[in-house]
Design goal:
Elements (H helix, E strand, L loop, with lengths): L1 H17 L5 H8 L8 H13 L3 E4 L7 E4 L6 E5 L5 E4 L6 H4 L12 E4 L2 H6 L2
Parallel strand pairs: 3-5
Antiparallel strand pairs: 1-2, 3-4
Helix pairs in contact: 1-2
The structure holds zinc ion (ZN) (2 copies).
């Protein structure tokens, strides 16, 4: 149980440090800095538990496999870099979305995804 707790803690810190949604392999890579012998099955099991407990939430972008982030970040959107594929959090929300809603319709929610190149990719481009 202690080993499991240590693995879970490493996974939560990985997500906290990244401060952006991580794919299971990214979680594994980051968390291995803390628990070198961590395996991908443990990552999947821990993420299932963390989702059930509401500590993490799933982030599903169109055409992408599930990523995870810690819950409690409030309403936000995401930016995906088309070069490295990483997903970042975007704070703020485009105004005027209710004006786009057809007359007589009720708007309940929205999805906004920004695509482009992240600063790391832009700065390392030759
Ligand atoms: Zn990038
Ligand atoms: Zn929004």
């Amino acid at each position: 149980v202690q080993r499991r707790t240590r693995q879970r803690d490493a996974i939560v810190s990985a997500l906290k440090q990244a401060a952006r949604p991580l794919a299971p392999l990214e979680i594994l890579e980051q968390a291995r800095g803390l628990v070198p012998r961590l395996g991908i099955a443990t990552v999947y099991r821990a993420m299932r538990e963390l989702l059930e407990e509401g500590i993490a939430i799933g982030v599903e972008l169109p055409g992408e496999s599930l990523r995870y982030e810690l819950s409690g970040h409030g309403h936000h959107h995401h930016f995906q870099c088309r070069d490295c594929g990483k997903v970042f959090e975007v704070h703020g929300c485009p105004p005027g979305l209710s004006k786009l809603t057809p007359k007589g319709f009720r708007l309940d929610s929205h999805e906004v995804v920004l695509y482009g190149a992240c600063s790391f990719c832009l700065n390392t481009a030759a």
